[in-house]
Amino acid sequence: MIRILFAACIAFAGASWAYARPTQVYRAARIWTGNGKAIVNGVLVVRDGKIVAVGARNQVAIPDDAQIHDLGMAVLIPGLVVAETTLGEHGRDDDRALTPEFRAIDAFDFYGDYHQALAGGVTTVQLSPGSRRLMPGQGAVVKLAGDEPTTRTLRERESLRILLGDAFKNPPRIYEPPVGAVSVDRPLQPTRQQLSSSLGGAVAGLRATFRAAKELGPSSSSLSTKRDPLLAAVAEYMREGGRIRITAPSAADIRAALGLAREFDLHVLLVDPSGLTPFREQLPSWRDTVAGVILSAEVKPGTIIDPPVLDKNEPRRRLPWDNAKELLAAGQKVAIRPTADGDLEDTLFVAGLFTSGGLSADDVLRMVTINPAELLGVADRVGSLAPGKDADFVILDGEPFATHTRVQTVYVNGEPAYLAKSAPRATVIQARRIYTGNGEIVDRGSVLVEGSTVRGMGRGVSVPPDAVVRRYDRAVIVPGFLDLSTGLGLGGPVGAAIPSQTNLSERLVSGDSSVAYARQGGVTTVLLTSPGANASPVIAFKLGDRPRVVQDPVALHFAVTGNLTTQAVSLRATLQAAQAYADSFTRYDAALADYEKKKKEYDDAKKTAPAAKTADTTKPDDKKSATPVKTQEVKAPAEPKPPEKARVIEMMEPYRSLFTGKIPALVEAHRVDAIKLAVTIFRDEFKLRTVLVGADDAFRLADLLAEKQVAVAVGPELVRTVERDSVNLAQVLANRNVPFGFQSKATTGVKLLPQAVQYAVRRGLGADDALAGLTSGPARFLSIDKQIGTLAVGRDADLVVLSGPPFELSTRVLAVMIDGQWVYEEKDEE
């Protein structure tokens, strides 16, 4: 039998070892251990529910078999410890004023729903018994998640609670029926008053209780203990040096609590001592009797409440953080708690209010982690992140006390106890500065993104409760960049000329490695063009993991190159035919509108016209007899005929958008004569919106282009040497108010377009003009500015996070968002 049991134990141990979880490693941007400064680029190592190591990434050894969780920009803190709650009382008190034998642990529901508190990062709480009696019982300390009640219970008996202030006053009268028959000699007794309706009476009763308990002594018989469990419970705390927890709001209550502590050599925890002003000079002397202070923020988040009225000798109402600062300065250990259990979800918010009193974030974090853990006697298990302690920690999406920080995940004993929604509805990106792309700059601004759209932007953006907040305190945000000519989108180089009727959006491919590389430079939207072809379609699309079309076609591409004489003849013939085709639809549309108008008039007349007939009427003429008058017969109008429909020719369809002004012509022309011919044909003769592509010699004709309102796509060579002089074409165009954008005519080289523009800025192009040329300028002359090109409410959420001002030599691209999705972060290159 012994062998069987031994074999079973070995088998069980082997199975446990075989299915044990591997070591878990969590990497975070910052780790606050709860007892010291935050660790930048920290790592936390967890095994079997315990912390193995914590520190900077270059200082902590990672086991080879570890499972690594890269948390990106997240912040990791210890599980929060709340030094007082009433989760164990269920809102009820016993009728008796003194029930020290009652234990809060006995009323706590280990299988209750504590999701709300866990959502606030709270993992460990103190349970206090009752809230309306003088001495309601003994507290306990438990975890809000875990396996068995025994493993979740950190302390069954933590402190003996005493309530001063107004809470204990006027308890109900007690009726104790006599034992045995009632007679004349043993009549029914009336109810008797309890302790107490005044502070003096309560203190007198407590002193009597403590004296009696002290007299009970350690040698008291078990019989006397059974006969008086009340005194036995009090005596046990006095005998073992246990903590006495005293709620003492006013100065008088504090004075009474201190008097009891000194008289009976008690170690007390003061709870909510608001009236500290008279004791400010005495605070350092409290160390012998006051083990610590538990403060409430005295606010209910989102609700206006009436604060308590303090003694009349108080010079002014002191705020809780004022008291916390002075207590810490006096060497007292301070813990923070929410005012009510319903506010546990907002523990970080409540604690963050204390930073307004001049307390550092380090100090405040200690007041909801290691300080309460030490006051509750459980610091060996929880309250800080240190080797050997329980792996109770919280993952935040920002700094602990930042306004928009949200709890993402909560771990208890290394296991997830709470997980925020995996698909948050909104993202907030905060930065030192936002360049909107239209000339406006917002300092310390935020961009709110919901789905694929910008829903808010400015210095004080409203934030949904489940939003993910990304903070870039030293960075700037700019709109996504636009490249006016690339070879991206088809998974390879563009081959032969593409016919005008081709639907390029159907040919775009996903997962193109060139696209992933190109967007690392901040380019979010590109144009795909067929080089050298006349009347070929141009498509604008986003560089997301799956390309999304912005407009197809966004323009038609033409080329004025080679023999200009034959080119002019060919272009005019093509455009004349295209204009005739477009005009046929313009005439048809006009005729159709006229027909619909006449048809409506016909239908209305047909409904209201009377039937054709002759009627006799009389017209009174003074005293003469009436003379019959005949009316004319009313005829219905002739029914109009619909116009003949224009004949649709698929290859000519794109020209309709061109000649109605919905899309421009992208005309490739480099030399002066080619540029002049392009302007003459496209602008002067056919009145088309025109964008010159390349236009190397445009600097010689800048005034003409400005007069004719012709835009230019500059590049791929932005600064050239012409006749020994340096020519910065974008700078020349900017000084003549000629709209311009930039083109790379590349694939993976699209990433380098902003760098080339940076060089143009170094050689004289204004940074504001350069940014407009990469964003709002081309979006405007392509007529896609209602979607992209600027950061504004209602626009697509395409943005770039830069480490510094645009076009500074040291500036790097930190992150890129397209349609509300992060498609690149700097760490992706690691």
In short:
The protein is α/β, with parallel strands linked by helices and 830 residues long.
Structural summary, described in words:
The chain is an alpha/beta fold and 830 residues long. Helix content is 26%, strand content 26%. The chain has 20 helices and 37 strands. The strands form 7 sheets. Strands 1, 2, 3, 4, 5, 16, 17 and 18 form an 8-stranded mixed β-sheet that branches. Strand 30, helix 16 and strand 31 form a beta-alpha-beta unit. Helix 4 crosses helix 6. The protein is elongated and about 120 Å long. 44% of the residues are buried.
The number of helical runs is 20
Q: How large is the radius of gyration?
A: 41 Å
Residue share in helix:
25-40%
State the total count of DSSP E strands.
37
Tell me the span between the first and last alpha carbons: 59 Å
What overall geometry do the principal axes of the alpha carbons give? elongated
| Mean of all residue-level pLDDT scores | 84
Given helix and strand content, the structural type is alpha/beta
Query: Could you give a short account of the major beta sheet?
Result: 8 strands, mixed
Strand-residue fraction? 25-35%
Uncertain stretches = 1-19, 188-192, 220-225, 611-618
